[in-house]
Amino acid sequence: MFKKPNVPVIAIEEHYWDPELAKHFTGSEAGRSNETEEKLYDFGSLRLKEMDAAGIDIQVLSHGAPSAQKLPLEIAAELTRAVNDRLAKVCAANPQRFAAFAALPTVDPQAAADELERTVTQLGFKGAMLHGMTNSEFLDHKKYWPIYARAEKLDVPIYFHPSLPHPKVTEIYYQDYVKDFPLVVRPGWGYTVETATQAIRLVLSGVFDAHPNLKIILGHFGETLPFLVWRIDASLKRPGQKPMSFRDIFCKNFYVTTSGFFSNPALLCCVMEMGIDHILFAIDWPFVANAPGVEWMKDIPLSDEDKAKILSGNAKRLLRM
């Protein structure tokens, strides 16, 4: 079990499934191993046993992909509200171990903004998590900006989590290799491309000009963007571009987590580009096991003070825990 530094361990990308919402998942979105599904539906012995064995004190729970992002308009708001109410009861029953990110019905942006406010102000949620596209649209379009305006007003982050690429992207980019390497579409590469593209589009959209205090979280050490931030910034400053500083926005408004990515070189890149205060601990449970992430933190090449910030200090500050 993790002992030093002597601080709580808060993991902030830890998933579950709501049975009613999961009924709407189809095809490969619904396909999980029996063991993984059992863990996704568990809030008791299975989840807590693995948390205790690894030394994780708190999970910030979030619905797994695609969450509410593919719900039809006619049911999205009501169903998502019920999903969040059920999650709130789980957290209320064990507040020492669980906190929550809301699911949002993005197909109805105003309802999504209202649900964000309800879950934060009435249920004590710490922000929201969004998964991929809505009706084949990235979520930087202006019609989705009410969500970001409300998040800024409430001073809570929006966590952008991967989901499956658009079917046409899968066909063109990955179909030749999906049979032999099915996870190339998912964490192997497809998830990274989709989520990094969404993040870049958010910056280019101007939403941070309108909402300069909006906070965005990306998992998996920022989906490659900390490694690329210098080149992206330099390219967008060449003649012929609209004036902006990608670096300034990304390194101020974005936070990254360690979810499913326990690598010293990746960690040090993020520290050097974004600063230690923008890095938070996560596992990506149950898709990734708890123990390797916690064990890795013991020997990362940072001071105990910096380890403590990653393990829980930054989460306490950003999520007001």
Verbal overview:
- The chain has a 5-stranded parallel β-sheet with strand order 4-5-6-7-8. A 3-stranded parallel β-sheet has the order 1-2-3.
- It has one domain (about 10-320): TIM Barrel (Alpha-Beta Barrel), CATH 3.20.20.
- The protein contains 15 helices and 8 strands.
- With about 325 residues, the chain is an alpha/beta fold.
- Strand 2 (about 60-65), helix 4 and strand 3 form a beta-alpha-beta unit.
- The radius of gyration is 19 Å and the shape is globular.
Overall mean pLDDT: 95
First CA to last CA: what distance?
23 Å
Strand portion: 5-15%
- What is the general shape? globular
Q: How many structurally independent domains?
A: 1
Poorly predicted runs of 5 or more residues: none
Number of strands: 8
For the record, the CATH architecture stands as Alpha-Beta Barrel
Q: What is the overall number of helices? A: 15
Please identify which CATH superfamily we are dealing with.
Metal-dependent hydrolases
Structural class: alpha/beta
Gyration radius, to the nearest Å? 19 Å
Return the CATH class.
Alpha Beta
| Helical content class | 40-55%
> Biggest sheet, open or closed, and with what strands and sense?
5 strands, parallel
Task: Briefly note the CATH topology name.
Answer: TIM Barrel
Spatial strand sequence of the major β-sheet = 4-5-6-7-8
